[in-house]
Write a structure and sequence with these properties.
The chain is mainly alpha-helical. The chain has a single domain, classed as Hypothetical protein af1432 (Orthogonal Bundle), CATH 1.10.3210. It is 69% helix and 0% strand. It is built from eleven helices and no strands. Helix 8 crosses helix 10. Bound molecules: fe (ii) ion (2 copies). The site of one fe (ii) ion (FE2) has 7 residues, from helix 6.
């Protein structure tokens, strides 16, 4: 499929607002990829498809994950907000036929993060926080941080999300904490 065809698939499955968000993440991801040395075309594709399951019901998402043998961790099972990333990655790989592992992996970890995130994973993760359609308090600071370091932006973003979740006594995904620690370690150790 061409990029335009993938974009049509996203449009077909998403509300107008979410489709616009996906277009913004695609554009932002491509720009971040350009800046940090990832592949802009992969980032664009991951961006347009990353939320493809987000407007699909939980039952159907569970069915897709079951169908393609996706095992959920305990934390993932208890947090349906993480499901669209996992069911989306399976859908993109097995139904839409995206063969690129990096793109599929980046979609799978775009919400929670994970231990051992690669460059494209980080690009999509940060693009999802700072895309042009975002307007939460603190987004300008995130955008500033993303200009100098993906890891700085990740640390800020995860800290923000964790504070929000613990404030509401929601559970945390341990994978997010791994991503947070590893981003901080990378900052301490400096550029590889
Ligand atoms: Fe998402
Ligand atoms: Fe998103």
């Amino acid at each position: 499929m061409t990029y335009e065809e993938y974009e049509q698939e996203a449009k077909r499955r998403l509300t107008e607002k979410r489709f616009v968000h996906s277009q913004c993440v695609a554009a932002c991801g491509a720009a971040l990829a350009e800046k940090y040395g990832a592949d802009p075309e992969k980032a664009r594709l991951a961006g347009i498809l990353h939320d493809i399951m987000k407007d699909t019901g939980e039952e159907e998402q569970l069915k897709i994950m079951e169908q393609f043998g996706i095992m959920l961790s305990q934390a993932q099972r208890h947090n349906p907000k993480l499901w669209h990333a996992l069911s989306g990655a399976a859908y993109v790989e097995y139904v839409l036929g995206v063969g690129d592992r990096e793109v599929v992996e980046a979609i799978a970890c775009h919400t929670g993060g994970k231990s051992g995130m690669g460059l494209l994973d980080k690009v999509l993760f940060v693009a999802d926080y700072i895309s042009a359609d975002r307007d939460y308090p603190g987004v300008e600071r995130m955008r500033e941080l993303a200009k100098s370091s993906l890891e700085e932006a990740m640390v800020e973003g995860i800290a923000f999300t964790v504070a929000e979740k613990t404030g509401e006594r929601q559970t945390l995904d341990p994978q997010s904490i791994c991503a947070y620690n590893e981003a901080l370690w990378a900052l301490e150790d400096g550029p590889a």
